[in-house]
Amino acid sequence: MSGGAGFIGSHVTVELIEAGYDVIVADNLSNCDMTCFNGVKKITGREDIPFVKMDFCNPVATELLFDSNQIDAVIHFSGYKAVGESVMDPLKYYKNNLESFINVIESARDHGCSNILFSSSATVYGEPDVLPVTENTPRQPATSPYGNTKQMCEDILRDSVKAYSNIRGIALRYFNPIGAHPSALIGELPRGVPNNLVPFITQTAIGKRECLSVFGDDYPTPDGTCQRDFIDIVDLAKAHVFAVRRMLEGKMKDEYEIFNIGTGKPLSVMELIKGFEKANGVKLNYKIAPRRPGDVTAIWADPSLANKELGWKAERDIEETLAAAWAWEKHIASGE
Ligand code: WQD
């Protein structure tokens, strides 16, 4: 697993191990530390999970990893993910996100690792005309270099599996992953000021931030705030187990498949804030602020293909998810 020590990778590691798979976690730790990996070891009770500190932009190191291990499937998470930063420094994003994935595909192809899972994003849909979005909803031109790298990586995988007959691929398009593991031992650890809504909410609730800004309340939505498909991180992690199993068991219907990973239910920014207050019995200090440039008004998934083909479904309810996010923030604050 590339980029396996981060927010999503660590939750996926837990679910894969609990499903009986052996996992090698590889990460260059450029955007996280060992906190979550250590949490994974505690949750699973497995001190022996292999960890490799390496950069997938280095083709030699990537080769070496595949040379020295028998790898049946690879999940590619590593990549930069700050939308705003990608606009300021696009080459950093193109270089890192494309190079690392190309190296992974090349090494997989050359070492008999047939199965490649890519972590894509709902960002590829841009501002959709029709909601909810299905996998056939046309992708819109990306609004940021970050979003563009997700589209390009999807295309690189699609073209590669078409050309090289010994590999196949799945792209999972995540909607908005939030929450934390119920143990509160792993979760999201943003560096600096969080860009994403839920980390900003939990940091405001705990007093690290003074006030949450709600970016726009004049959108053409029921309450004027943007709508998203917030998907629990544990539910999202479980989707990877189904996808990996589908590949390993040779159940794919096409050499390249795409699945939306979302709940299918829209929630507005304001509903999420109210939900957080209710789930945790806290009051949030928030104010209405101007719209954030680049935000889409509303997007949510039609997850029926993943429900049917993967046999996966989002199960956790939003209150549980927001309680877990809060428990994780308190766990970090406790310094344990
Ligand atoms: C959600 C809503 C904001 C912060 C981004 C990427 C996407 C994916 C996830 C990551 C929006 C509003 C936010 C705040 C607010 N990739 N908001 N106040 O923009 O849907 O998706 O993150 O790796 O590719 O684009 O998620 O959590 O930033 O915002 O009002 O302080 O919350 O305006 O409507 P987004 P988000």
In short:
The protein is of the alpha/beta class and 336 residues long.
Q: Can you walk through the features of this model?
A:
The chain is α/β, with parallel strands linked by helices and 336 residues long. It has a single domain (7-328), classed as NAD(P)-binding Rossmann-like Domain (Rossmann fold, 3-Layer(aba) Sandwich). It is built from eleven helices and twelve strands. The protein has helices at residues 7-18, 35-44, 59-67, 83-88, 90-110, 145-163, 197-206, 233-248, 269-280, 304-310, 318-334, and strands at residues 25-27, 51-53, 73-76, 115-121, 168-174, 176-178, 212-215, 227-228, 230-232, 256-261, 267-268, 286-289. The chain has a four-stranded parallel beta sheet with strand order 3-4-5-10, with helices on both faces. Helix 9 (269-280) packs across helix 11. The longest helix has 21 residues, at 90-110. The radius of gyration is 19 Å and the shape is globular. UDP-4-deoxy-4-formamido-beta-L-arabinopyranose is lined by residues 81, 83, 121, 123, 176, 195-197, 200, 212-215, 226, 228, 269, 292, 295.
